[in-house]
Amino acid sequence: MQELSLRIIELIAAIPAGQVATYGQIAAMAGNHRAARQVSRVLHTCTSKYQLPWHRVIGAAGKISIPKDQPGYTKQKKKLEEEGVLFGLGDTIDLNQYRWSGHNK
DNA sequence: AATGTGACTACCC
DNA sequence: AGGGTAGCCACAT
Questions:
Q1: Which nucleotide is nearest to A52 (CA to C1')?
Q2: How far is the CA of A86 from the C1' of B11 (A)?
Q3: Residue A10 domain-assigned (yes or no)
Q4: Which residues are paired to A87 by β-bridges?
Q5: Please, which of A5, A16, A23, A84 could form a disulfide with A36 given CB 3.0 to 4.6 Å?
Q6: What's this model's pTM, rounded to 2 decimal places?
Q7: Structural domain boundaries enclosing A70
Q8: What is the pLDDT along chain A (105 residues), one digit of tens a residue?
Q9: pLDDT at A104
């Protein structure tokens, strides 16, 4: 079963506004802590279909995983700030404060 | 049909 | 401390 991909989608969709989650975190909650890449793929593929909050998914370091060259970088940062997720120095998100603890499953 | 690649991470040397 | 590798898996070529 592609339960993994499916769970990934649901988990991402379940991230509350004002909070963020890392790829590895989602992958771990979905069942495989090594499926971080799958998470990114799901983001690309399913955002348009499931309207996933892709901007709430960031890298393990608390940084946006998009090159600054791409428009998505600024876009994501802006969306997060609007939701209440503030960036520290170096455009880094304080995971200890904003990281989603999705233990409710 | 096979091979390579990617919004990633954690582990091992 | 820092660089290389393995593991996930759909999609492009």
A1: B7
A2: 31
A3: yes
A4: A93
A5: A23
A6: 0.92
A7: 3-98
A8: 578 888 999 999 999 999 999 999 999 999 999 999 999 999 988 888 888 999 999 999 999 999 888 889 999 999 999 999 999 988 999 999 999 988 655
A9: 59
CA of A25 to C1' of C6 (A): 18
Please give the single-letter amino acid code of residue A10.
E
Q: Specify if A26 maps to a domain.
A: yes
Decide: CB of A41 under 7 A of nucleic strand B.
Answer: yes
Contacts of A47 (CB under 8 A, 6+ apart): A54
| Confidence at residue A83, expressed as pLDDT on a 0 to 100 scale | 96
Is the residue at A104 inside a domain?
no
What's A69's domain CATH number?
Answer: 1.10.10.10
Distance of A9 CA from B8 C1′ (whole Å):
16
Q: Which residue's C-alpha is at the least distance from the C1' of C7? A: A34
Nearest-angstrom CA–CA distance, A74 and A86 = 13
Pick from A31, A20, A17: nearest CA to A96: A20
